[in-house]
């Protein structure tokens, strides 16, 4: 029995380590004693003006909001950004500039844990202290209600400003909003936080300004670095022989003041020689962990990780599988989360929608940075700060993931890893560690320039060595075929051969009954084996190829051919792109069974099957994106027969000749983007489109309109942000 308990404890400990659930995170949050450490953020309260760099613009904006006499209502100003960006420094400099212009003022440091009564007592004491008044008698014995009333009475006729620094609790505003009454006298509340949701919560009962603090631009980062490291040497300037290394070190900090100041402070204690600085540059990753001057950086940034709920902790660790400075495609990341089962199902929401909520929360918590948002407002790529990535890599060391990179391409120790990330590493070394790879659930490839023999394990040995594999992503891998034994990966949920030279899928693909995503984009696969109809759980089928060597034309993009029976894939949510010219009418009719589709893309639509396609689309009540193209630029598309289009449609793209713009488009009140090309419409179609209330992007290109004038009236397209009018040979006036 004792052995059984011990075994259970060991398994729990292994899982805890695998997902980076460090007991120290829990101890710190519940108030347990922790080893003392130096918190450099405290120094931000005492910085001289000359020591502060790069805050002039945000300081001016915040002061403008604080002193705006037109806004008499209580106003909350939130300064939001990742740990170490300088939120406290900025807020303190602003506070010092404006506090004398208010009747009373207070600076309150909140942090992760606080008691509501103590918070209210501190606010009262600071207000009285600022005005050189004695605090109310008996304040320490007052309960929450008495404290709230006392504060309201004190502020009744006063114009006040209070700074709440380092707020973590999302509903913090609910604890203090009634005490800080809106006396219509210009009261101001400033909150610094890492979490955007803290700012959003304030909107419940107050006017809110939000300033998203950004990393320092490179010039300012370099100025801050030199001010610190050469403060007492070389007249504050970087010597010529250290310029290159200085630039490299500052580059690694990515504009994060916390990292710049800490590293510069360490370098200021060392000899100003190339060898000494090169050692620190090359070993910066280990120095961040071991050097007491730098350990505080990781400690401060780790607080954000420790504050995450457990389901987001595991999601966040996946960012460590991607290379440094890599812009991560959000759809790729989200599908990995889903494939590995870390996304919880919610009623009336798809797993993809829930996963996007997870990603949004990580962004709001300032852990993830947005890289690219498309013209319709959809988040496409994201990344994490390089220094924050060091936090993730440390959390991953207990078996969450092993990174195969360069010479470090062998597995370490005796820990069985669950995930492999191949970054310029050799795959052949994996098979010397059979016991350690037997538990692998996920393989992610970034080795674009690998040697083909390194990937031979894909053929013949994959199922033998990776029986538990759920996620196999070989995007960009130098492979041209897939072995039949791929079908033996019973647990596989995600398979990507994107941007490979693979030309054909084996028939054994039909054995992957748990597969949810099949990504063949930019591969050379143009025909699905008939066995694909067995993949009843398939949710994403992405298979098309852009021929970038050709000029922009309809034929540049090539889709796939499917066979009779594919209508059995009733869980499909994304299907891109079917080559309808290669499919018979009866096969096309099977589209009507795919009622869960969110995105559908079809090419080479013949005019005679347009009505059939329209009938199928009418069944797709959840459809959000429709992309239709003709067989050539001169062939007609018939889409006019649809009487009840999916009202959920948000994006519509039509490539080919049209007699007129379909009347049903007027019904699409949720449409955010529409694009038409080669339609050769003679009449101004803006009348059909002008009442679409949510349209953000309108593209009329490549002789989609052959008239000479487009009349844009005042009030048309109230939300339009992007207008594309390209290659319209007849257009003269618009």
Question: How do the helices and strands line up, and which of them pair or pack?
Answer:
Layout: H1 2-18, H2 23-29, H3 56-66, E1 75-80, H4 87-98, E2 104-111, H5 116-130, H6 144-155, E3 160-167, H7 172-176, E4 188-193, H8 196-201, E5 207-212, H9 218-229, H10 243-253, H11 257-268, H12 274-282, H13 284-290, H14 295-306, H15 310-317, E6 328-329, H16 330-339, H17 351-364, E7 369-373, E8 379-383, H18 386-395, E9 402-405, E10 419-423, H19 434-437, E11 442-445, H20 462-465, E12 471-473, E13 494-496, E14 517-519, E15 540-542, E16 545-546, E17 557-558, E18 574-579, H21 585-589, E19 599-605, H22 610-617, E20 625-630, E21 651-655, E22 673-677, H23 686-689, E23 697-701, E24 722-726
Parallel strand pairs: 1-4, 1-5, 2-3, 3-4, 9-10, 10-11, 11-12, 12-13, 13-14, 14-15, 15-18, 18-19, 19-20, 20-21, 21-22, 22-23, 23-24
Antiparallel strand pairs: 6-8, 7-8, 16-17
Helix pairs in contact: 3-4, 5-6, 9-10, 9-11, 10-12, 13-14, 14-18, 16-17
Walkthrough of the structure:
The chain is an alpha/beta fold and 734 residues long. The protein folds into 4 domains: 2-29 and 307-391, Orthogonal Bundle (Arc Repressor Mutant, subunit A); 55-212, P-loop containing nucleotide triphosphate hydrolases (Rossmann fold), CATH 3.40.50; 218-299; 544-734, Ribonuclease Inhibitor (Leucine-rich repeat, LRR (right-handed beta-alpha superhelix)), CATH 3.80.10. It starts with a helix and ends in an 8-residue tail after the last strand. 40% of the residues are buried.
